[in-house]
Predict the structure.
Amino acid sequence: MPCVLSSLAFSLMTICVKQLGDRLPVAEIVFFRALISIVLTLIGLRVAKVSPWGQHHGLLMLRGLCGSIALLCFFEAIANLPLASATVLQYTYPTFTALAAWLMLGERLRKRIMLAVLIGWIGITLVVRPSWLDAGVGPLPITAVMIGLGGALFTALAYVCVRRLSADEHPLVIIFYFPLLSVPITLPTMLQKGLWPQGMEWLWLIGIGVLTQLGQIWVTQALSGLPAARATSINYVQVLFAAIWGWLFFSEQMNLWIITGAALILIATLISLSARIENQAIGKIGAT
């Protein structure tokens, strides 16, 4: 359940980013998102009576750095690509996560999870394909596509760090280092190119901060209870949300390719969930 809730929160956050991306610089959006997150996280830490600094400072800083770069890339992709396409590119990260978790954490690539990742990847390809091949649409801008894939890579590295840290660190401490690094990274661009938000833009900025915070809390909970590859393969469901929001709010068309790809993504999610249920039923043998 935390995986699905985090996907819903992040998908709603992309609507807010899309509304702002035409006028405000991406670095400014990330800067305000980080400020809101710092305030909310510090309140949570105070209520929980937990020190914000944690124990594994180096790994926490690395998690914050990777997460900040990933967010900059993802927001840039949202600003320059159709919402569904940007989200699809971002959600190639479960493949990167599975490989990174195997290399860095020694997690086994179980056959069912590999199958879920494969099916999800095929579904993602079908969702992206209409934007590349439909008459009159033309190919996606290659620079924006590469930025989107770069965001997916750094998201995977950040999630592997979260998986490693979750054994010893409080979830709010892990979350705190994300905006803590985002502020100094984005501040120079913010001071040089930033524009003062107007009217509804304040509401969209607050929405980004609150929804991202909720998404981070739920995804951190999910990664603390599941192997990184399995938890992130479940998050394919965000692509479904993106297709729906793109159709409802930005007139992005739904067609056979998108519907077929979405169905495959749903199947991948169900396979991941069934693998978790099976492991819990088999017992407390220990290794997930």
Q: What stands out?
A: Residues 2-282 form one domain. Residues 279-288 have pLDDT under 50 and may be disordered. The chain has one domain: 2-282. Residues 110 and 230 are 9 Å apart (CA to CA).
